[in-house]
Amino acid sequence: VVADLKCALGLCILCSRPAQHKLASRLCAGMTALQFLLLAQGASALHVLRLPTAHLRSAAAAMGEIHRVPAPAPVSDSASLAGDMTGVTYYEDKLCVEEEECELPEEGEFTVAILGDLHLDPRKMEDYETGRGHFLPIIEDAQRRGVATALVSLGDLGESKSVDPENTQELFAGTTACHELAAGYLSSFGCPYEVIGGNHDLEGIDEFSTDEANLEAFCRIHHKPTMQFCRQIADRTLLVGLGSTVFRTAKYTSHEVTVDDEQLAWFERLVSEHPSEEGWKVFVFTHAPPIGSGLRVLQENHVVNGCCWLNHSGGEKADPRTTRKFIELVRRHRCIKGWF
Predict the structure, then answer these.
(1) CA 89 distance to own-chain centroid
(2) pTM: predicted TM-score of the whole model, two decimal places
(3) Which secondary structure element, helix H or strand E, spans residue 213, and what is its range?
(4) Closest Cα to residue 46, out of 110, 111, 115?
(5) Taking the alpha carbons of 135, 136, 139, 141 in that order, is the dihedral positive or negative?
(6) Predicted pLDDT of residue 71
(7) Beta bridge partners of 239
(8) 154 and 10 in contact (C-beta within 8 Å)?
(9) pLDDT category, 97, cuts 50, 70, 90?
(10) DSSP class of 191
């Protein structure tokens, strides 16, 4: 499944099992393999993606022992979502079968918040705080039940224009100030976060003279050893990210989302070493989709500017084989279950 999840604020929740979510159950009744809930609320949008996963219980549970933990206090009204989402507690509804006791979550359960193009502007942080408020109750509910949580940002962290036009024309995107603001915001969701670079994240052209210097700042500020990442979120379940590492030295367009050859080789090894036959599930995160994914809605300016697909113009060496490589790996390795 390849899904384009870029919405106004680009906020998304990925849940690993079919939801008992009250609102989702009403709107998505009858859907099984894949269920989306899109709830637009002003400047933000909420996606709940529900995918089937193996129902893996602990060895003790398999032997018939019932695991229970005391039920925590209910979420207060002030912490719950507004409007139709008020009072919804996904994991409480699913795990707390008795008034005072709750089952432990299964080993394969996880919740991931996915953020698209944030384009943070320090003058408008109230909007981003409002968007975050839609997700904190869901993340906190999962954590209280012992469900693994994480957050993934798909890049384009800062506004690609001056955010202080009276004093400077320097673009905000890609600067140290941009990445420090983004790191603070991404950390404020209360769970571990991962981030990959989009086509604007090395755009600090007034501050950094080379892509290498800009990339070093990006990785250092976000505490990343490399642009790519791999996080095991649940039993035999990996979150894998690939990011753009070329801006100034791009052969055709600076805004091509370029996954370099080193990352591509690393990704091919990773999916080869985690076969679906052994039960592995891999969810991939990139700023642009792979060509051949079948997306029906694409922005014209991205097509014209050569930044619509991963390695749109052949990547760092302008080799069209790298453009096709991503979808070929999807077709070859059944462990890849979703691409965001």
Answers:
(1) 21
(2) 0.75
(3) helix 211-221
(4) 115
(5) negative
(6) 35
(7) 231, 283
(8) yes
(9) low
(10) S
